[in-house]
Write a structure and sequence with these properties.
The chain is α/β, with parallel strands linked by helices and 345 residues long. The chain is built from 14 helices and twelve strands.
C-alpha cells in the first residue's frame, strides 16, 4: 500500500512539474521581444530601472537594449525596424523621418528646469585661459557637436538666440560621438561643449574643463522624449501602452529616490548600483558613483510631454532649413499614452 502511495505521489509530482514547465513556456512565448534604443547616460536611467525591476516583464515585454553613441541614429534605426522604441533627444534626422510619416513622439522624459540639475556649458581649459569665461563670448568660438541637426546643434542655436548674436558666429565642429567631443575639449581642439551633468561635473571636478553656465538659463526645454514608429502606434497600440506603463514606473522610482537622495541613503546607494550596470560600467563603482549621483536630472512625472517645446524645436530646425516645412507638430505627436501640456493652438 505504501509503495502504491509513493508511486502515485511520484507520478503527481512529475505531472505537476510538467504543467509548471508548460506554464512557464507559455509565459515565455507570450512575452514580446522589444528593442529599446538608448545611450549610456543617467538621463536614460528610468529604462534601466524598469528593466532591472521587472516592470517590462510585468507588461509581457522581453526588453532588449541597443546602445548608440548619438541620438540621431536611433531615429534611423526605428524607421528601419531595427529598434522599436527610442528615448533620446529630438534631432533634425528625427523630424525629417517623422515628417514623412515614419515616427511619432509618444511621451516626454528629461526636461530642463531652471534651478535643477541640467546640461552644463563647458569650455576647454585652453579657451578659458585665453579669456572665454562667459556665455556672451561665444561669437568666434567653436563648439563640439555630434552631427549637424543634433540636439547639441539646437542647444548652441538657443544660446545664440538668447544672447542676441548671429548663430553663424559660432563655429560648429561635428565629431560624431560624445567621447570624441570630450577628447577634443580636453585637448583644446574645440572651445566648448554642452553636456549632461553626469559627464560635465566629472570633467570639471577632474580639472579637465571649466563650466561657464547652465543651459536652462537659455533653453529650458524638453531634452529627451520617447518615440516609436507610426506603424507601432497604429498597429500595436496595446504594446505601446504597455511599454509606456513600464517605463513610467521606472521614471517614478528614479524621481522618488534620485531627486531626493538624502531622504533614504540606502535606497540611493542601491539605485546607483543598479544604474552603474549601464552608466560608467567600465569604471569601478567607487569612482563612478559620484558622477551618477550628481547626474540625477528632472525626468517628467508620468512621462508628461511638453508639446509646445517640441513645436518650438521643430520650427527652429525648419527655420534652419534642416527640416522640411511641410508639416506641423500635430502630425508627429501621438497624445494617446501620456499627459500632454503646453499644447499650441
Amino acid at each position: 500500500m505504501k509503495h502504491r502511495l509513493n508511486a502515485t505521489w511520484h507520478r503527481s509530482l512529475i505531472a505537476g512539474s510538467a504543467l509548471a514547465l508548460i506554464a512557464l513556456g507559455t509565459l515565455a512565448q507570450a512575452a514580446e521581444v522589444v528593442n529599446l534604443g538608448a545611450l549610456r547616460f543617467t538621463s536614460h536611467a528610468a529604462g534601466y530601472i524598469a528593466y532591472e525591476k521587472g516592470y517590462f516583464r510585468d507588461q509581457g515585454i522581453d526588453l532588449k537594449f541597443k546602445f548608440f553613441q548619438a541620438a540621431q541614429p536611433v531615429a534611423v534605426a526605428i524607421a528601419s525596424g531595427d529598434v522599436d522604441f527610442g528615448v533620446t533627444a529630438l534631432t533634425g534626422g528625427f523630424f525629417n523621418l517623422a515628417g514623412k510619416g515614419a515616427l511619432q513622439v509618444i511621451g516626454g522624459v528629461w526636461h530642463e528646469e531652471k534651478g535643477m540639475n541640467g546640461s552644463a556649458i563647458l569650455v576647454s581649459n585652453k579657451a578659458f585661459d585665453a579669456g572665454f569665461k562667459t556665455v556672451d563670448q561665444f561669437p568666434g568660438k567653436s563648439i563640439g557637436i555630434t552631427q549637424l541637426g543634433s540636439s547639441f546643434h539646437y542647444m548652441a542655436g538657443q544660446i545664440a538666440e538668447a544672447n542676441g548674436f548671429d548663430f553663424k558666429e559660432i563655429k560648429l565642429k561635428p565629431l560624431q560621438k560624445v567621447g570624441a567631443i570630450i577628447g577634443a575639449l580636453k585637448s583644446g581642439q574645440v572651445d566648448s561643449f554642452i553636456i549632461a551633468p553626469h559627464i560635465a561635473k566629472g570633467l570639471v571636478n577632474a580639472g579637465a574643463a571649466k563650466q561657464i553656465g547652465w543651459l536652462y538659463d537659455y533653453a529650458p526645454y524638453q531634452v529627451t522624449t520617447v518615440f516609436t514608429s507610426t506603424k507601432n502606434t497604429k498597429e500595436k497600440s496595446d504594446l505601446v501602452g504597455r511599454f509606456m506603463k513600464a517605463y513610467g514606473r521606472g521614471v517614478a522610482d528614479f524621481r522618488r529616490v534620485m531627486l531626493d537622495q538624502d531622504k533614504d541613503p540606502a535606497a540611493t546607494e542601491a539605485m546607483t548600483k543598479l544604474i552603474h550596470k549601464y552608466v560608467y560600467a567600465s569604471r569601478p563603482y567607487a569612482k563612478a558613483a559620484p558622477s551618477i549621483k550628481s547626474g540625477a536630472i528632472n525626468l517628467n512625472a508620468g512621462n508628461a510631454l511638453d508639446v509646445g517645446d517640441v513645436d518650438k524645436q521643430l520650427k527652429w530646425f525648419q527655420a534652419q532649413k534642416l527640416v522640411s516645412s511641410g508639416f506641423s507638430v500635430r502630425d508627429i505627436v501621438d497624445l494617446s499614452y501620456v499627459q500632454a501640456y503646453n499644447i499650441p493652438n
